[in-house]
Specification:
Layout lengths: L4 E8 L5 E11 L6 E11 L10 E6 L9 E3 L4
Parallel strand pairs: 3-5
Antiparallel strand pairs: 1-2, 1-4, 2-3, 4-5
InterPro entries: NA-bd_OB-fold (IPR012340), Ribosomal_uS17 (IPR000266), Ribosomal_uS17_bact/chlr (IPR019984)
Organism: Devosia riboflavina
Keywords: Ribonucleoprotein, Ribosomal protein, RNA-binding, rRNA-binding
């Protein structure tokens, strides 16, 4: 099964080797037919501490690394 990859914005890099990424999704409300924005925060593993607050990054699903971390930073090419 392929790993999920999400795009989001780094909102915190205070912890060592960990970043918090806010991922936003947009969908049409079933009744009101308006576009609705919902966001969720994911903890991701950043081995080299390269991501900074405000960066747009890609994160990839991975095996559990810690209690909260199930995602890892995709290295930019």
């Amino acid at each position: 099964m392929p790993k999920r990859v999400l795009q989001g914005t780094v909102v915190s890099d205070a912890n060592e080797k960990t970043i918090v990424v806010r991922v936003e999704r947009r969908f049409t409300h079933p009744l009101l037919k308006k576009t609705v924005r919902r966001s969720k925060k994911y903890h991701a593993h950043d081995e080299a501490n390269v991501a900074k607050v405000g960066d747009v990054v890609w994160i990839e699903e991975t095996a559990p690394i810690s209690k909260n971390k199930r995602w890892t930073l995709v290295p930019s090419a």
